[in-house]
Design brief:
The chain is built from 19 helices and two strands. It is mostly helical.
Length: 372
């Protein structure tokens, strides 16, 4: 019945703009995960059609469907693969959304007939059933968990057959330099942490289900895109956040003066440190002297904790978005302790990782609200 409001929407407007598309995508994932159309179908169809009318009128529709996030991971693990089950189809839709790649050559997997019974040969058990029967007989109820399913071509599935995950994943990894990226398209962000190389079935189910929950949070608009990237490519949200912090500080200080804010608003020790960096850069690139006189160029030489110090020293102007000075110091420090190991390829302490991810999300929310 989810097709009813969608049919109504596209009857009224055949091509949606980017903003409308994003709203409809969030509605789709929220409706699916909340089991919205399990009951009172006609009333809910009418409600959603009214919301779509508001969307097409340029208004902000409200989709606040109840999703049990606390239970979602366990529900995913416990859900047996069955193409007649709506929840299974939702998970398969998520798999297809990630543009899954063939494990052998990285080519995109075809979705022709995805939800038909004939497609079952293209649905691969990551831990093969034969392997599980011989090695994990006590976990029989989870053999067909939808979390243990991967979309790959039938020919690849046949080649893998009943091999242990440690065998075929290690072999594929050694044979293909792009294998790490291929696995990202199957919500397996880190082969070494997944349990696959140890043939740890329980660890793998927990690992992948956590990533699926994270992906669902992003698709529904509950979580941020950064959450998906923390394990697969943490440098991306770090770089984006640094750019946003820099722009926030620069734009906030520039509002107070038509001239340069540098000498009046930037602490002296930061000015001196930046001057040394610029001098070193000018030795390598002496032709860009005039550029270094501009505030928007000089501010790019600040370290991450320098931005915190600038915010604190200009609290009356910049502090309103942050709540308290203590929170600024705490979250910027956590971000620094997370950022530096990631950027420099060093081992990251688990506590610093979790605190750093929380700091990224906190700063993103602060900057989002400040820009609203």
């Amino acid at each position: 019945m989810i097709l009813v409001p969608l049919t109504y929407l596209f009857h009224k407007k055949h091509a949606l703009n980017n903003s409308e598309t994003q709203h409809v995508e969030k509605w789709f994932w929220q409706a699916c995960l909340s089991n919205r159309y399990d009951a009172t179908v006609e009333a809910r169809s009418e409600e959603d059609c009214i919301a779509f009318d508001e969307l097409l009128e340029g208004k902000e529709p409200s989709f606040a469907f109840l999703i049990d996030w606390a239970a979602l991971k366990n529900n995913l693990i416990a859900q047996r693969y069955n193409l007649r089950n709506a929840f299974v189809k939702t998970v398969l839709s998520l798999y297809s959304y990630a543009d899954p790649k063939n494990l052998l050559d990285g080519r995109s997997v075809s979705f022709d007939g995805l939800f038909s019974g004939y497609y079952k040969h293209n649905l691969h058990h990551i831990f093969p059933q034969a392997y599980l029967r011989n090695n994990e007989p006590r976990r029989r109820e989870f053999f067909d968990s939808v979390v243990n399913i991967m979309l790959i071509p039938a020919i690849t599935n046949n080649e893998i057959s009943d091999k242990a995950p440690s065998v075929y994943f290690r072999s594929l990894s050694e044979a293909n330099n792009e294998f790490r990226d291929i696995l990202h398209h199957h919500y397996i962000s880190d082969l070494t942490q997944s349990g696959l190389l140890e043939n740890d079935f329980v660890k793998f189910l927990d690992f992948r289900a956590s990533h699926l929950v994270q992906a669902f949070r992003v698709r529904t608009g509950i979580g941020s895109r950064s959450e998906e990237l923390f394990d697969s490519d943490p440098s991306k949200p770090i770089s984006l956040l640094e750019t946003r912090v820099r722009a926030f500080v620069h734009n906030g200080l520039r509002q107070e003066t038509l001239e340069s804010y540098w000498k009046e608003s930037i602490p002296l020790d930061i000015q001196e440190a930046v001057n040394k960096k610029i001098q070193g850069d000018m030795k390598r690139h002496p032709y860009g002297r005039d550029e270094f006189a501009r505030d928007e160029v000089r501010i790019q030489f600040l370290d991450i904790m320098d931005y915190a110090k600038v915010i604190l020293s200009n609290w009356q102007l910049l502090g309103g978005a942050f709540g308290s000075k203590g929170e600024v110091e705490k979250h910027f420090l956590a971000f620094k302790n997370y950022r530096n190991p990631v950027k420099h390829g060093r081992a990251l302490n688990e506590v610093d990782k979790r605190n750093g991810e929380a700091a990224v999300l906190w700063l993103e929310n602060i900057l989002r609200d400040a820009a609203a």
